[in-house]
Amino acid sequence: MVWLDFEQGVEVRSGHGSPSFCFVLRKQNEAAGRATQADPSEVLPRWGKTSVPARNKTQQDPSKLLLVKSIFYAKILFMKIKYLIFISLITFLILSSNLWATPSYGTDMPKKHGFFTGLEYNIIVERDLKNNNGRIKNSDKFLMLSYGIFDWLSIDLKAGAGSVTYKDSAVGDLKFRNNFAGAYGFRIKLFESKNKFLKITTAFQHISVHPKGASTPAGKYTIIVDEWFGSTLASIKLNKFVPYFGFKAGTYDVIRWIDDSNRKRFKSEDNLGLIVGFDYWLTDKLKLNFEHHFIDEIAGSFSVGINF
Asked: 297 and which of 30, 93, 127, 242 could share a cystine (Cβ 3.0–4.6 Å)?
């Protein structure tokens, strides 16, 4: 059996196959007076590249090729920066809109013996008090912590700072600067479908804000804001996007002192409201939350948190 070097030493220079062995065989055959050409049926293929000419490739339109490459690289770029785009959009909404308030937490709950923690920003732009006793605007910043007692029950705690603006025609706008604010509550999972597409939860929350006092010519004003409310929400799971909606009912009380006396309690004008919001999961554990309240108040919230 004869090994052939199809291009007379080209393989020796290219380094493919077994050129040195083939070259030696060819020299031995020439010394023995044997023909260097063999019956093709006696030729065995060698590992590596051969010298068989490449087939002519179909020429592609350069403009179409450029378009395909551009779309391909654009998709790669979008996949890398999509989270940055989303976070930038939410940041823009936060900075351009004053529609944040005490949230309902949505329908996501920590698993049994699991924890959830995160940061939250809330603001109420407008909440009217009964009997023309003024209007309240307040904002809060919280560190959140939730613990799953069972898969269907969790407790929720918050600690942070809050400020209040009390608008009254008699005294004008009184601004009470940031001071302690806290909240607590619990949530119950009422229903969850087997494929986790639909979930219904109910919750109870209490938040209390104790801003610093404000001095006026009429005396020093001190104020406390207490909000108690319950809510029921339903959500649907659309991959990473989980929108939810529902209703809430509760009270929003403002307790006011002048020079540590003359204590009065003012209640909010409306006690029923609607909730619309969504969770967006950046990873399996990290999420963003965005929520709006309507009817009883013009309000909303934004938070970022993680399950562990």
From this structure: 127
